[in-house]
Amino acid sequence: MEFEFDNERPIYMQLVQRIRIGIVSGELPPGSRLPSVRELAVRAKVNPNTVQRALGELEEDGLLFTERTNGKFVTLDETHIRCEKEKLARESLERLRRELKGIGMTDEEIRQFWEENR
User: How far is Cα 112 from Cα 107, in angstroms, rounded to an integer?
Assistant: First the structure.
């Protein structure tokens, strides 16, 4: 898992997003064990507290669960993962739609452009 950060958003939010994408894309399959907080912190070159905060948020969202003494794992609930994937896809489409509207395209032009370029 590669990590690249920008200065636009807090690092922990970017970590959440990167791991969330890893889960929905299958890079981190259901039931797979995540590296330890310390190992993720070293890989991402961030403070372990930042990693812990990101993993805590993903656990609150139900995408991760903790097994005492064994670490954190990706949820086994594939329905939840599929819903999360659809949510990320809708967010990406809405962001793209806003950008295209920002350059003056109408919904019809966006739809036509999509059909011509898929």
Answer: 9
DSSP state letters, the chain: ------SSS-HHHHHHHHHHHHHHHTSS-TTPBPPPHHHHHHHHTS-HHHHHHHHHHHHHTTSEEEETTTEEEE-S-HHHHHHHHHHHHHHHHHHHHHHHHHTT--HHHHHHHHHHH-
pLDDT in tens, 20-69: 999 999 999 999 999 999 999 999 999 999 999 999 999 999 999 999 88
Whole-prediction pTM value? Answer: 0.85
